[in-house]
Each structure stands twice: as structure tokens, then as C-alpha cells.
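Is this the right way to post C-alpha cells for a design question? Let me know if I should format differently. Anyway, here goes:
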């Protein structure tokens, strides 16, 4: 894909020329096919496209690597027990996995001073036939601008989580999104983090406790719109945009 297309952040109209000739240049077919090039920011929220949101989870972006390095500096400040590095599941118990996600959250809050910008997630779940398009910035762009909508901050967190080998999911409730992370490699126990808490300067461990309560309440009220597991998307060949 040409680099200009990969960086496209607006809708553009162009055409594709198909021309068939033989070795003597005799023309057999010529057709200009109109094309609409969509912005790489454009996510169409439909049931069929639900897994596509994982394309915005970019664990190999250098900006995400830099975030994880900063997060490592927060590990000594987290509640014990903590690992001595961002080791993912390797020789880490559930509390040490939680500490790593808390450290990522705190790096965003303290080092990047990330701000949450209120905007609704226009998606009503797999059973809804409607469609809505939302412009979503890539995690590196969110880091650069130091602000993002709930879905953008959730995808940013998910990128850092996947960078260290943890299993992430995107939880959608009416109008909102937050992060789920399996704290065991067998995916039997998930904990949750809502990036909206950065505006209140809430530490990662407190955000985790508060979001666990939000998740439990939505389960009880049957208001979970969808849970998009990043590994499901990867298994469906939906890779990171970068």
C-alpha cells in the first residue's frame, strides 16, 4: 500500500484504472473504476466489523515501547508484590500482573498527563443492525496529543498490555468503553481499568477497583453491549495497523 494511503486521515475520491493489452500494445480492455478511500481513523461500528477495532491496538509501535519503559519506572511505587520488570505473565502471579497494568495506567497519568475527552461509543452490540462511523486516532497520536476519547484511551492501554504479552479485551457498555486484562494466562480471571479516571488523577490501583465494580454492576444489569477479545481478532487475521 502506498505510504500516502497508509497515512490518509480524510475521505478521498479517486479511481483505479484497469487496462489490458497484448505484447503489441493492442488494447483489449480499459476501465476507470471509481474508488472511495476512507480515512485510517474511520471505524464503522457494525456487528460484522466488531473485531476490526483491534487494528487500532498497536503493540509494536515505538511510542508504545517508550510508554512501557516509563511504566517500568512506576513498578516500585505500586502496592506489593510487584515484579522487578514489565515481564507479562512470565513468573508473575495475578497481583504482579495487576501491578504491571497499574504501572502503565500511572505512566499515562503522571508522565504523559493524558486527559480524557468525553465522546460516546456509537455501538449497540452484535444484535443491532444499525451502523455508525467514528473517527479514532491511533495510540501514538493519542500519546502525542495527550488526550483521547474513552475508546482511544482504552486502545492505547490495550496496546501497552499486548506489548508485554498480556491478554486484553475491550468492554463496551452503553456509550462507553474500558479495558479488561486477563491476570492469568489461561484467561480465567479478568480485571478492569477505565481510563476516564485519569481526569480525576486517580491512581491505577484505585481505577482498577472502581472499574471492577462498574463491570460487575453492568453484568448484573445485563448492560454489557459487547466484549471484544483482542486475541479473537488476531486469530481472524486482523493485525495492528502499524
Amino acid at each position: 500500500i502506498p505510504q500516502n494511503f497508509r497515512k490518509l486521515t480524510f475521505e478521498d475520491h479517486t479511481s483505479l484504472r484497469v487496462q489490458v493489452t497484448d505484447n503489441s500494445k493492442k488494447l483489449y480492455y480499459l476501465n476507470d473504476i471509481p474508488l472511495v478511500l476512507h480515512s485510517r481513523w474511520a471505524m464503522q461500528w457494525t456487528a460484522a466489523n466488531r473485531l476490526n477495532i483491534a487494528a487500532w491496538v498497536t503493540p509494536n509501535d515505538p511510542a508504545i515501547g517508550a510508554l512501557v519503559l516509563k511504566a517500568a519506572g512506576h513498578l516500585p511505587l505500586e502496592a506489593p508484590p510487584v515484579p522487578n520488570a514489565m515481564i507479562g505473565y512470565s513468573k508473575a502471579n495475578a497481583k504482579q500482573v495487576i501491578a504491571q497494568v497499574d504501572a502503565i495506567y500511572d505512566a499515562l497519568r503522571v508522565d504523559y498527563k493524558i486527559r480524557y475527552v468525553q465522546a460516546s461509543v456509537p455501538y449497540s452490540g452484535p444484535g443491532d443492525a444499525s451502523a455508525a462511523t467514528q473517527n479514532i486516532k491511533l495510540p501514538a497520536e493519542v500519546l502525542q496529543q495527550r488526550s483521547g476519547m474513552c475508546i482511544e484511551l482504552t486502545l492505547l492501554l490495550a496496546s501497552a498490555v499486548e506489548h508485554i504479552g498480556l491478554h486484553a479485551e475491550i468492554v463496551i457498555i452503553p456509550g462507553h468503553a474500558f479495558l479488561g486484562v486477563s491476570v492469568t494466562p489461561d484467561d480465567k480471571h479478568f480485571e478492569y481499568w477505565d481510563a476516564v479516571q485519569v481526569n480525576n488523577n486517580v491512581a491505577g490501583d484505585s481505577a482498577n477497583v472502581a472499574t471492577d465494580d462498574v463491570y460487575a454492576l453492568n453484568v448484573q444489569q445485563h448492560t454489557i453491549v459487547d466484549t471484544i477479545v483482542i486475541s479473537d481478532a488476531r486469530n481472524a487475521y486482523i493485525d495492528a495497523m502499524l
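Format looks fine. Someone answered above. Worth noting: Helices lie at 3-6, 62-72, 94-111, 139-145, 150-163, 204-220, 230-235. The longest strand covers residues 27-37.
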